Amino acid sequence: MRKYLFYIFMALVCAACTLAGCRKNDGNESKGPNVEGVFWFEEKESDPGVMTGLYLKDGNMSYYAYAKSDDGAAILSEVTRKFVKKGNIVLTFPLGAYTIVKNEDGTSGTINSPLGKIEYSGLTENSVFFVSYDSEGNEPVRMQLYTLEYLGFPVTGIVE
């Protein structure tokens, strides 16, 4: 079960890179790129019209999904039992606590979570590269993640 959750987590992280560009504006944004407080999505769709992503903020890591189309919104509404419209981002699965160690260069670091370790590098305002390791230290996934805005997808709302 733990490996299954890890693979789901990585798929969502990839989807987050795809939808790169969507930031939650809570007034605590720091200057320069930051891996936290940004919705990171992969470019590919996990389901037709649905992109999955990752959000890290205040020590909590969560999977989110983006409704790229009306069909995607219908899928997400059914799965989450919440009203989702095209262009919405919706919480799909809280993953739990994490800790982060940022390197001095400001563009790389390590994220430790219950599912394993993620090393990130090449952080910019619009993209980041993740290499994830499971709890046994295996390296199952490498992915480039983006903000939704960078990928050209408008965000019309966030459904918690």
Automatic annotation (TrEMBL):
The UniProt keyword set, sorted, is:
Signal
Extent of the signal sequence: 1-20
User: The organism sits in which domain of life?
Assistant: Bacteria
The protein's name is Lipoprotein
Q: Which organism is it from?
A: Candidatus Cryptobacteroides excrementavium
| Lineage, highest ranks first | Bacteria, Pseudomonadati, Bacteroidota, Bacteroidia, Bacteroidales
